[in-house]
Automatic annotation (TrEMBL):
The chain crosses the membrane at residues 12-32. Pfam families: Band_7. This is SPFH domain-containing protein. It comes from Taishania pollutisoli. It is found in: Membrane. GO terms for cellular component: membrane.
Length: 317
């Protein structure tokens, strides 16, 4: 049989105490990360809050109960509610919150499930605000709804150590049939606006064309009037020259000569302008005499009316 090696009892005792010391040291040291806090209990009762960095506790007496997150967190809540005009709508509300450093104890010990309890407040506030508004106002006033929700939750959660930073309505989703109806209404409004714009454009075009036509006619009338004025002036000069060149010529004879000249010039122009068409018109010396008599009679009547008007004005004065 081989020799048995016997270790002294004191060596076992030393190893035990060394191991126990290492365990106690490990148990006594706590390292807390940044933006977190550690709840320390002593014999089952709250003792203190250990902040970020290096810390010590009494092993087997003190216990690191929980690590509290101090960063900003977000809770997304899906809510279905009804508007004032009886339209069911789905809303997504995002609540950003954090735990106050001054009330870490209250935040940990007061609420068992803080996320569910914040969601309950969101449900209650949104279902109190949205039924006051019609669907269009929900879209237009979503910021007001979010602010109201934020203020109400902040007041309720403040005593528990939670700070509500922001409440955002990130999605508003009505029923599919309602969205289709809204799209049709918007499309009809756009078509109405397009028709109005198109009608206004046509109206402006018609007005401008009418103004252009009126201006054209005005200018044409001025041209015709100027042309007639020049013709009359030419006749006047021709008659005066004719009268000066011949003695003992009456006005009737001069008028007859001018009318006959214009008559034959007109017949000549008609014949030159008609290419393939034939124009039949009555012509006789007697007809010429009748035309002259009508002109002389018209001139006489015109002179009489002019004299009558002049006498009347003189009488009124």
């Amino acid at each position: 049989m081989g020799d048995q090696v016997t270790l002294p009892l004191g060596l076992f005792s030393n190893i035990f105490w060394i191991v126990l010391g290492i365990v106690l040291i490990v148990k006594a040291i706590i390292i807390v990360r940044e933006q977190t806090a550690v709840i320390v209990e002593r014999l089952g009762k709250f003792n203190r809050v250990a902040n970020s960095g290096f810390g010590l506790i009494i092993p087997f007496i003190d216990r690191k109960t929980a690590t509290v997150n101090l960063r900003v967190q977000q809770l997304d809540v899906e809510i279905e509610t009804k508007t004032k005009d009886d339209v069911f709508v789905h809303l997504q509300v995002s609540v950003q919150y954090k735990i106050s450093r001054d009330k870490i104890k209250e935040a940990y010990y007061s609420l068992d499930n803080p996320r569910n309890q914040i969601a309950s407040y969101v449900f209650d506030d949104v279902r109190a605000e949205v039924p006051k508004l019609e669907l269009d106002d929900v879209f237009a006033k979503k910021e007001d709804i979010a602010i109201a929700v934020q203020q109400n939750i902040a007041e309720s959660m403040q005593e528990y150590g939670y700070v509500i930073i922001k409440a955002l309505i990130t999605d508003i989703n009505p029923d599919a049939k309602v969205k289709e109806s809204m799209n049709r209404i918007n499309a009809a409004k756009r078509e109405k606006e397009a028709a109005l714009e198109e009608g206004e454009a046509k109206k402006i075009k018609i007005i401008k064309e009418a103004e252009a036509e009126a201006e054209s006619k005005r200018l044409a009338g001025e041209g015709i009037a100027q042309q007639r004025l020049e013709i009359v002036r030419g006749f006047k000069e021709s008659v005066e020259d004719f009268k000066r060149s011949m003695d003992n010529v009456t006005h009737e004879e001069i008028m007859q000569f001018v009318l006959m000249t214009q008559y034959f010039d007109t017949i000549k122009d008609i014949g030159s302008n008609s290419k393939n068409s034939a124009i039949l018109m009555p012509h006789s010396p007697g007809g010429m005499k009748d035309f002259q008599d009508q002109v002389i009679q018209g001139t006489f009547i015109g002179n009489q009316m002019k004299d009558f008007s002049t006498a009347r004005k003189s009488g009124e004065k």
